[in-house]
Design goal:
With about 180 residues, the chain is an all-alpha fold. About 75% of the residues lie in helices and about 0% in strands. The radius of gyration is 16 Å and the shape is globular.
Amino acid sequence: MSSTLTVPDQVKFDEAIELTQTFLMQLKKNELISSQIQDFVAALVQTANGARGFFVTYLTGADPICDEPRSEIIAALQANPDIAADLLVKNIAMSTAQKLYHQRRNDSDMMAASATVATRTTNIIHQLNLPQIQEMCRDLVATIQTGTGTYSEFLSRWGYDEEQKNAIAQVVSELGV
């Protein structure tokens, strides 16, 4: 099987989104062999832009194929643990806060979408079982509890209120990582 998926060395965020969309279509149609799946994801998540584009597309995708990541995807993420860990921890925080935001506005569709992202992210975190994720989760909870720390800028940038931060701390703590 031949694939048209080639990741540029300095992939841009929007390119990574488009590549991931193409990847998911090919994956759904069973047009990729195991090594192509792992090689593509590994190449894409080597850079922050590539990883961001991959996760934003994969975690929010409407297709159920994204609900249970294949072992090749997990292996590719394990090969790039620092970038993957950082984005996954931030994704679990953001989706948790957004779920609460949408709940407050009685927007059940967006709340469900945020819940899907949280579930998919949690699933990947558990499958990866990376020490980097454990450390980052501890840092995030400590930052929420003390008001200072590694994640202060992140939490401030998104303007999360106390209820959202408490929900994030609870979810991250419950990950059991």
